[in-house]
């Protein structure tokens, strides 16, 4: 039998996709948003999804779905907006964000179920939060060996600049975040170059990208191809907001480079005013399909909506499948190792 995993805060299924690629059976997923849960179910019909607030999920909800099976892994990425660097420019509002408390819900479920392994992923800012330190201590008291580090997912085969905090835990023996895996760097070209043009595509998700008025279209057309920046435009073409303050947000209205990793794919990934999300050559933002591929979703991954804002949110908030696949494969190796010893 495949090892059993539970995906908390599952989103549209990026973490589950990676765990399945690693060989896990994802038995249960929890997702509060109904539309996002629909997308999850389209791609993972075999998984029992609990579509409600995790604060309302108890041990009985999960137990009835796993039918007494041993749970090897609980994994999840609690909403991270309150811990993000941008959110914490105003630390008072950032740290008081009610979503921060959802990280406690991850621990609560772990405490109830006591799986053999845990995996938590979040933004680096979580490590500075007092509740995270408390959770580390509480997990240790439950008997978990722990390791946590801030890593760049570009080192794990994901064509994207994205630093994340990863916490791994094991009840069965020592555990360490996999690093220095010798994986060749991947680029934007590796993932989206071969796509057909938007005009010729039969994929409705590949037809979704930003639209603009004539002034902004003109500005985009003048930004140098393959990695150009708005700062390279003559100043008379700068937007008024950029003239007033050019400090920070330098990626805004920037193009991706074919032979580099992309900028971080966020919930604003279909809007070039939110970051470096312009296509390397074409005068448009990347499409929803291109964004999903840069997140390492399979080319045929389905989405339940074509609403641009909702799609961008689903894709940008997702756990890149390739990243969770590599973490999952490492945990699979430990399962084989520890279950072949006298530790259990």
Automatic annotation (TrEMBL):
Keywords, in A-Z order: Methyltransferase, Restriction system, S-adenosyl-L-methionine, Transferase
UniProt cross-references to Pfam families, sorted A to Z: DNA_methylase
Positions of transmembrane segments: none
Entry's EC annotation: 2.1.1.37
Coiled-coil positions: none
Molecular-function GO term, any one: DNA (cytosine-5-)-methyltransferase activity
Catalytic activity: a 2'-deoxycytidine in DNA + S-adenosyl-L-methionine = a 5-methyl-2'-deoxycytidine in DNA + S-adenosyl-L-homocysteine + H(+)
Claim: Secreted is one of the keywords in the record: no
Active site: 80
GO biological process, one term: methylation
Family from the record: Belongs to the class I-like SAM-binding methyltransferase superfamily. C5-methyltransferase family.
Name under which the protein is recorded: Cytosine-specific methyltransferase
Provenance organism: Bacillus stercoris
UniProt lineage: Bacteria, Bacillati, Bacillota, Bacilli, Bacillales
